[in-house]
What we know:
Arc Repressor Mutant, subunit A; Tetracycline Repressor, domain 2
Amino acid sequence: MSILSAPRTEKGRRTRERIVAIAARLISEQGVARTSLDDVGSAARVGKSQLYHYFADKDGLVESVIDHQIGRILDDERLGALDTFEGWTAWRDAVVAAKRRLQGTGGCPIGSLAAELADTDEAARLALEAGFEHWEARFRTGIVAMIESGTLRPDADAARLAITVLAAFQGGMLLARLRRDVAPLEVALDGAIEQLRRYAT
Length: 201
């Protein structure tokens, strides 16, 4: 992938961020392959020359979209409060509520990208893998804090439990999207949190 250096002015940064946000929305709705630079330029009301001012090519734009979507996930302040069962419940409820507002439509911001790009774009796969690792680490950090505080038993495997939560989220999101029903996501997350509760002291 190729990406140009960051804009030097505040106006340039705002314009670039707006383009990336619009590209992220379009790609979320119709996929990477079906989203062209012309589509992005039209939706963002910028010419192709301006797009090439900020991005060397479509790969550069997709790289920025990946970073944007990873940032959206990691910026969720609830991920910093997963050191209690109340924190896990609040995160679960927020995720389910967001999916319910969409009536089950839409996928995970980076899970959908991974499904489309992992087998065809190695640079994208590596960037998405790193994003998932950061996300998993946030889950793991919360679980480790619960072990250290005595909320969970010392034999709780934080790494395995973090993967369990992440996998439950991804599978639940996919089934909810297919069925246009938030219930699979609720069941999957409830099951993952129940795994945590099995280690409660």
